[in-house]
Amino acid sequence: MPGTKMRFGAFIAPFHPLDENPTLAVERDFELVEWMDKLGYDEAWIGEHHSAGYELIASPELFIAAAAQRTKHIRLGTGVSSLPYHQPLMLADRINQLDHLTRGRVMFGVGPGALPSDAFMMGIKVAKQRDMMDEALDVLVPLLRGETVTAKTDWFELNEARLQMTPWSRPSVEISVASQVSPTGATAAGRHGLGLLSIGATSAGGFNALATNWAIAEETAKESGNTMDRSQWRLVGPVHIAETREKARENVRFGLEKWLYYFREVAALPLAPTDGSDPVDALIASGMAVIGTPDDAIAQIERLQEQSGGFGAFLQMAHNWADFEQTKRSYELMARYVFPKFQQLNDNRDASLAWARDNRPTFMGEAMMAVGSRVAQHVEKKGTENIRPEILEAMGLGKKPDAAQ
Q1: Residue spans of beta strands (DSSP E) within 180-232
Q2: Among 196, 274, 286, 398, which residue is least crowded by beta carbons within 10 Å?
Q3: 213 with 133, same domain?
Q4: How many independent structural domains does the chain possess?
Q5: Does 2 reside within a domain?
Q6: What b-and-e string marks burial along 15-27, b requiring 16 or more CB atoms within 10 Å of the CB?
């Protein structure tokens, strides 16, 4: 019997350099989600950012509402909603509305907020963001289950707050908590029995923390009377694949340096060497990124499975390293050659082919007997006229004429 079907998707921040039309850049994000829907991807997660110029989507809810009208099957998640930036009832109402508009295709990813510059503009202390996320989750989880909530903190107040519409998804829209290296996300997920979204799963720190963070989530869940489900654990990592490793490396030269500039100079994450060595080599050698072939992508996912102990979905980090046509080709190669490995799509085909191959002599014998029986019936009624000599020879009903005759 087939095993658990791994899901595939994309985590779309997105990342768009400053030398192109931002309106067209966001339109291309829509086109990517539409392409993923056609290829059979399961999920797309859309980011929320308000500063620094690269990650252009301010409202994942607006993007999801529009994308839902342009797609048929793919599920769409906030990746993630920064909880300290929103009054919880207002956010719950928007997510619940999307749950109805999408007929249950929406997912609710949550986190404390990734860009300190966003928090600064709103007068939010970065040191308080994780506490604020926890306080918001304490009321968001029951609100999205259709419950009535009264609560007061130093930044919001709810008085007999409730959603006007019963949730479309029961008992609630699916909720997943962002996690990187620290145990904050894992602890929050365990406390409420939610999914876990490991955004930096392939970075050195994130990769090393995978098993530890899952253990923290499970321990916290047990203490809180909840259980964690590995099928609701999603791991994120950058991938670009092509028919050959050489072609993949050539493709990513298009936009990789601009992406690295953003993380070196703005987001301040040490993702690339500063000693002048080739960043493509560094990203591959560190395990941070797949830049290669479908087989390299398969190896990366198997590496993550071994390190984590098992998870439910792999999400490609959308990055625009290659031009759009080569980017679409990379997503297509994932769907054609990587999905089947982890979704057991060809297991029955392999078994069917092997069975037919191993029994070929029997089947051929049966086929020849069936043909021979019909030929014999024809000869009995009509004689051998108009029947090719080699067929008569094969059936033992006549002698094949000599080639010299």
Answers
A1: 195-198
A2: 274
A3: yes
A4: 2
A5: no
A6: bbeeeeeeeebbe
Classify residue 177: in a domain, yes or no.
yes
* Residue 44 structural domain: 7-350
Distance (Å, rounded) from C-alpha 9 to C-alpha 313? Answer: 7
Q: Is position 400 within any domain?
A: no
Between the alpha carbon of residue 290 and those of residues 41, 48, 144, the distances in Å are 18, 25, 37
Mean pLDDT of all residues in 2-29: 94
Taking the C-alpha atoms of residue 37 and residue 14, their distance in angstroms, rounded to an integer, is 18
- Identify whether residues 336 and 367 lie together within a single domain: no
Instruction: Give the separation between CA 92 and CA 86, rounded to whole angstroms.
Output: 10
Q: Please report, rounded to a whole number, the percentage of residues in the chain having pLDDT higher than 90.
A: 84
Q: Give pLDDT, residue 373.
A: 78
Residue 33 shares a structural domain with residue 153 = yes
166 and 127 share one domain? yes
Q: Which residue type occupies 121? A: M
Residue partners of 214: CB distance under 8 A and separation at least 6: 186, 196, 228, 230, 233, 308, 309
Peptide bond just before 183 cis, omega within 30 deg: no
CB 7 within 8 A of CB 13: no
The predicted-structure confidence for 363-395, as pLDDT tens digits, reads as follows 888 888 877 777 777 777 767 666 777 776 766
Percentage of the residues of the chain whose pLDDT score is greater than 70: 93
Q: Kindly indicate the confidence band of residue 159, based on its pLDDT and cuts at 50, 70 and 90.
A: very high
Distance CA 229, CA 108 (A): 16
Mean pLDDT of 27-42: 98
